[in-house]
Amino acid sequence: MSSPRDTIARLAAAPLALAWAASAAAADVTLTASEFAFEPGTVTVEEGERVRVVLENMGVLAHNVTIPALDAGTATIQSAKAAVVEFTAPEPGRYEIVCTVPGHEEAGMRATLRVE
Ligand SMILES: [Cu+2]
Fold first, then answer.
1. CB-based neighbours (< 5 A) of ligand 1, an ion
2. Which one of 3.40.50.300, 2.30.30.180, 2.40.50.140, 2.60.40.420 gives the CATH number of domain 26-115?
3. How many whole angstroms from 99 Cα to the centroid of ligand 1?
4. Distance 13 CA to ligand 1 centre (A)
5. Are 12 and 20 within 8 A, CB to CB?
6. Residue-range domain boundaries for the chain
7. DSSP 35-102
């Protein structure tokens, strides 16, 4: 059972908790892979934001998501599987997203990470 005093303490702490949540921005992005493309072709996030990219492999071949400039990427996953890569958005600019399975980038598996 919580006493009225506990309730008052919780209410007093609430604005602080909300402020913290607002400053700890995070972006959830889903990228689908197929032969041979990523959808969407551009992902936009904000500098300093924690980014969580979920790769869904909708193709028949194995694919991955790799951001070479950030040294970040998912494992290479089979058809109908999903994988996650998390990173902190770097300074504003455009960063290449590719699939590193041989031949796939050349065939069109490229996207752009835009950091604002
Ligand atoms: Cu691929």
1. 63, 99, 101, 104, 109
2. 2.60.40.420
3. 5
4. 48
5. no
6. 26-115
7. TTEEESSEEEE-TT-EEEEEEEE-SSS-B--EEGGGTEEPPPB-TT-EEEEEEE--SSEEEEEE--ST
C-alpha 16 to ligand 1 mean position (Å): 44
Write down the pTM of the prediction.
0.78
Average pLDDT, the chain: 88
What's the 109 CA to ligand 1 centre distance in angstroms? 6
pLDDT in tens, 46-71: 999 999 999 999 999 999 999 999 99
Distance from C-alpha of 14 to C-alpha of 95, rounded to nearest angstrom: 38
Distance 85 CA to ligand 1 centre (A): 16
Q: In this predicted model, what pLDDT tens digit does every residue of 99-108 receive, in sequence order?
A: 999 999 999 9
Cα(74) to ligand 1 centroid in Å equals: 12
